[in-house]
Every structure is written in structure tokens, then in C-alpha cells.
Amino acid sequence: MKTAVIFCRVSSISDRQSNERQVLELKRYAESNQLQVAMIFEERISGATPNTDRTILQEALTFCQEQKIDILLSNELSRIGRSTFDVLETIKFLIDHRINLHLQKESFTLLGEDMKPSPFAAIMIATLSTCAEFERENIKYRLCTGRRVFIEKGGKLGRKKGSCKSREKKESEYKMVLAYLKKGYTVKVTSALCGKSISTVQRLKREFNL
Questions:
Q1: Has this prediction a pTM greater than 0.85?
Q2: What fold does the segment set 2-128 form as a domain?
Q3: Can you tell me the distance from the alpha carbon of 12 to that of 47, in angstroms, rounded to the nearest whole number?
Q4: Which residues make up the CATH 3.40.50.1390 domain(s) of the chain?
Q5: pLDDT digits (tens, 9 = 90+) for 122-150
């Protein structure tokens, strides 16, 4: 039986969004295609983040390479990245290591039975990733326009005074998380050991430069 890795991403680092639907759909796909899911990677990070700075994505790719995983399953291309160049670089990594890719929304599979991309794969990937990049720019434009109108009407942005935790309070509250990160544990492992969400651990890793 071929092995698969499920990779999911939502943009929000809060609990407002969930990877649950993506995971469920991809599990169903794996089951119907007799694929054994070896690992599930769930990421909470903006699609605008460069792929080189996406810890969970890089862990998923490394896992696929080291464990000789047959196929990476994802809900849609924008989960892999919104920058065309980032996406193409990731696709090249997968092809070079003979790791297939299935995108559920686009009904797209990267490699054929001969483990080579079809003649139209590069064109389709480039087109889809360019569309995803345009979509991100449109979202950014709408958000900026909305903020400007809100401010013009007298609205104020930002958290209420006193609503942010101090650095000292975070050091005390997340002492174990910080300790594991300082020892070099990955975000995913630290999350599991400390019982904290991956988004929380990612945020702490960034804030404390670990």
C-alpha cells in the first residue's frame, strides 16, 4: 500500500478557523484510493508568508523525503503557497524526490504512473498559483480599503489598552513551551508535549526568536 501525508493550512492563528474539514476530506480521499496516511501536518499561518519561513510546511516536506512518502495530499494549491515562485520551487522539490502531489479542490495529481509530470502539469500549476497570488492581492486591497473607510468614520484600530500580555507573563505562563523550543524541539512536537495549539507555539517561537 502506498503511503501518504496530509498537509492542511488555515490563515488564522486564532481558533476562528479549523483544519478539520480539510483533514476529513483528505482522509476520505486516502481511504478511497487505498493510501495509508503516515502523518498529518496542520499549519496555522498566513498564505502570504514565504514558504521558507513556514515551519510546518518545511517539516512536512522533509518528512516526505526522509520517510520516502509516495504522495502529499492537500486541499488546494493555495494551501501550498500563494507566491507563484514559492509554489514552483515546492513543486520542483516534490518532482526531484519523486513525491506525488494531489490537490483535492482542483482534482489535480502531479505525477503519472511513470512518476513523471504530465506535459501540461507545469502550465496548470503556474496558472493556478498565479490566480492564487492575484486572489491574495485582492484580499489585501479589500482589507486596506476597509481599514481606511473605518478610520475615516472615526474608528480606532488595535487592541484595547491592557489587553496584551507582558513578556514576563508569557515567560511564566508558557515556561515549558519555551524550554522545549530552546532545546531544539520542533513546533509540532512541542505542541504535543505541552498540550498547546500549534499556532500558540509558532507565535511564541517568533516572539522569543527561538
A1: no
A2: Rossmann fold (3.40.50)
A3: 10
A4: 2-128
A5: 677 777 666 666 566 666 666 677 777 77
